Amino acid sequence: MYKTFEMELAGRTLRVDIGRVAKQANGAALMHYGETTVLSTATASEKPREGIDFFPLNVEYNEKMYAVGKIPGGFNKREGKASENAILTDRVIDRPMRPLFPKDYRNDVTLENLVLSVDQDCSPELTAMLGSAIAVSISDIPFDGPTASTQVGLVNGEFVFNPTAEEKAVSDMQLTVASTKEKVIMIEAGANEVPEEVMLKAIFAAHEVNQKVIAFIDQIVTECGKPKHEYESFAVPADLMEEIQKIIPAEEMEEAVFTDDKQTREANVRTIRDRLEEIFAENEEWLPRVGEALYQYQKKTVRKMILKDHKRPDGRSINEIRPLAAEVDLIPRVHGSAMFTRGQTQICNITTLAPLSEAQRVDGLDESETSKRYMHHYNFPSYSVGETKPSRGPGRREIGHGALAERALVPVLPSEEEFPYAIRTVSETFESNGSTSQASVCASSMSLMAAGVPIKSAVAGISCGLVTGETDDDYIVLTDIQGLEDFFGDMDFKVAGTHKGITAIQMDIKIHGLTRPIIEEAVARTKEARFYIIDEVMNKAIAEPRPEVGKYAPKIIQMNIDPQKIGDVVGQRGKTINAIIEKTGVKIDISDEGNISICGTDQEMMDEAKRLITIIVTDFEAGQVLEGTVVSIKDFGAFLEFAPGKEGMVHISKICKQRIDHVEDVLTLGDKVKAVCLGKDKMGRISFSIKDVAPENR
């Protein structure tokens, strides 16, 4: 027997089937939201994984093309590696749930979401977020939930919850908020420069909707939930912590970790660890736990100094930003480049421009998005943190950081009509010590300006951290957190935007949620810091976009023709357009609407390509003077090619003022001559004359 539960959610029915499928999983929920169907399961290993000091949670969002009635493209008709959207969905499911598992839990846990069908008006990503929360909550896996998630759009100034595809297309905001019963636990947003006060209202409006969903999940847990299983705790033994604190007094630990240089701090901690491992070398029980115990000691030391003494590891005040620097044009020959440095975090961004035909094709479950013309990629090599390991391509973190910066910059990009280019920016992490994703936003904004992309405004990003005490009102918000404060703190609250408003938010936390005062203070802090970065640093490096693209960037000429003439320009099997491309060296893209983009680096050749296309699509008129090449000679006259596929005939009597017996006496193949159109002859054929060209047109 299985049970079905239903509720109305944003005007559509959310139905959950429990016990219908996947009964061998620890917890499973077959989710139906509208006609979107997702199977969400939660499974845990029977025993903890040995040799690790973290909770091994794995989240999978599996997109199947059958869900939208498609067969995967390419030679291999089977889904391959996860798409970028799937990876980003994995992350957005993981972030609100991870903090609610026990910190000393070491059993492997997998949350898997299989997308079976997609109703474009009912988000499968949101359905999977709710499904994962339900699957874990009803399972026997220890979990301090449930959580609920809501998406918010802003259409014509009004909030829309879980917007449809049509509403998303015109929305000024795409916000996702996850909550527990008491607090907000995750925020993810992209927005068209939405004011801070509007964003805050949207966050807490979503939080209210989440409470209704949590009440619904509680009902399911009451009727179908399993008792939570016992597990082996991997908490650090209290007597080991006591012994370490005797060996390393608090003052010595403070001196070791409180420095503004990351390498010095790591060297200090490494010395302490070597010392402890030597002392406990004969203790087989404690020796393997020294590393985690030392981590806990560092964490306790840093948090106490920040929370009680308002002292940060590098000596800054609570709202002080690390030293900043910005410059442009440091890389020669690329289309645009900029470097942004904040303390020991340094990002170099390079912009590349290309024709719109090089926009990225998107093959996924979202049928509304088939391509994107702006791509932001983020790279994080091991040398940026002083480590050595082989590069295996971007991981989930790199893809997530790239997508966050991309989302932050999309709202200020010019339209395709204003700037007909595909745009790629790549952020290379030269050095990392906290919030490289937001440094990427700053570097990308300047790099785009340096490349001559007419963005509407500079965009800056900054991150705030948090250290909490025993009560909700015992906390400190930190502006511009470095790696140590992120590592030992409770929050990484990233906000990007312009002077006008917010363009992106991403909030990660390690505690069971944030109160409204914390969120409001974090938003206010990031606004203040963002303005300072733009006005005092970025604008001094480059204050506005350059008036034109650089000399190494491709130039683009746009023109529009009658769609009925597209076939004339393309020619049979592409013969005409290929001849133009071969002659001029340009790249030509034609849309079904007759919009033509001519792309190249040689302005003279681009103008020539435009001239040839204009000739091809323009009907001959009497009096029109054109230059042509002799391509064929007959007894009765010569044929001139004015453009690939566009020819006209000159009768032998119209070649010279004086009479000639043979065309070859005057013309040879390949000669370039000017001719005037005489209009149609008695048989309706267009004819030309060389001898009647006016002297001023010769």
UniProtKB/TrEMBL annotation:
Q: Which is a GO BP term held by this UniProt record?
A: RNA processing
Q: Which InterPro entries match?
A: ExoRNase_PH_dom1 (IPR001247), ExoRNase_PH_dom2 (IPR015847), ExoRNase_PH_dom2_sf (IPR036345), KH_dom (IPR004087), KH_dom_type_1 (IPR004088), KH_dom_type_1_sf (IPR036612), NA-bd_OB-fold (IPR012340), PNPase (IPR012162)
Enzyme Commission number, as recorded: 2.7.7.8
Sites where the protein binds Mg(2+): 486, 492
- Keywords linked to the UniProt accession: Cytoplasm, Magnesium, Metal-binding, Nucleotidyltransferase, RNA-binding, Transferase
A single GO CC term, please? Answer: cytosol
Identify the CDD domains for this entry: KH-I_PNPase (cd02393), RNase_PH_PNPase_1 (cd11363), RNase_PH_PNPase_2 (cd11364), S1_PNPase (cd04472)
PROSITE patterns annotated for this entry?
KH_TYPE_1, S1
MF term (GO), any: polyribonucleotide nucleotidyltransferase activity
Please name the source species. Sellimonas intestinalis
Q: What is this protein called?
A: Polyribonucleotide nucleotidyltransferase
Taking every annotated instance into account, which residue ranges of this chain make up the domain S1 motif?
A: 623-691
What the record says about family reads: Belongs to the polyribonucleotide nucleotidyltransferase family.
**Cofactor(s) in the UniProt record:** Mg(2+)
Keyword RNA-binding attributed: yes
Q: Which SUPFAM superfamilies match?
A: Eukaryotic type KH-domain (KH-domain type I), Nucleic acid-binding proteins, Polynucleotide phosphorylase/guanosine pentaphosphate synthase (PNPase/GPSI), domain 3, Ribonuclease PH domain 2-like, Ribosomal protein S5 domain 2-like
What's the catalysed reaction? RNA(n+1) + phosphate = RNA(n) + a ribonucleoside 5'-diphosphate
Q: What does this protein do?
A: Involved in mRNA degradation. Catalyzes the phosphorolysis of single-stranded polyribonucleotides processively in the 3'- to 5'-direction.
Could you tell me where this protein is found in the cell? Cytoplasm
Instruction: Please state what class of enzyme this protein is.
Output: transferase
